[in-house]
Amino acid sequence: MDISIRNAELNDYESLLPLFRQVHEFHVQARPDLYKKNSTPVQQAFYESQVKDNKQHLFVAVTGKEIIGVIVTQEEEIPENSFVRARKVLSINSLSVAEAYRNKGVGRKLAAYVFDFGKSLNVESVELGVSESNPSAIEFYRSLGMTTKSRKMEMVFNERDT
């Protein structure tokens, strides 16, 4: 299968919406106390603002004319203070591959593209958050050579009705 990676374009929105839904539906299922059901989790205006923002970078995986994956990234500058050193990182905010194309190297190709892109930006690292309730994603990121940097924990006091 021939897969190419390119920058997302404004007119890609409708093709990307199913991929955005896929990610959101996973989060709703995993944590209905935090995420709301929403058939349009990424509004078109928000998507367009991301594409136009020079600190956000959206890349799509394409086979033929079909978009089969997307990775959403954002450059972040962490200013130095008395506690931390200044750093520049590239954060992966979302990665989604169409179900029919999973386990075929699409996600790996998107990630490799972003790692190379991050190097070209001279960032110190590429970072992301991953849900503890998604062990396949954790294993995928480990297989790319990523390591756990920190862990976010919680103590829930008020369970919400879902």
UniProtKB/TrEMBL annotation:
CDD domains: NAT_SF
GO MF annotation list: acyltransferase activity, transferring groups other than amino-acyl groups
Pfam family, one: Acetyltransf_1
Membrane among keywords: no
Keyword Transcription belongs to the record: no
PROSITE patterns: GNAT
InterPro entries on file: Acyl_CoA_acyltransferase, GNAT_dom, N-term/lysine_N-AcTrnsfr
Name of the molecule in the record: GNAT family N-acetyltransferase
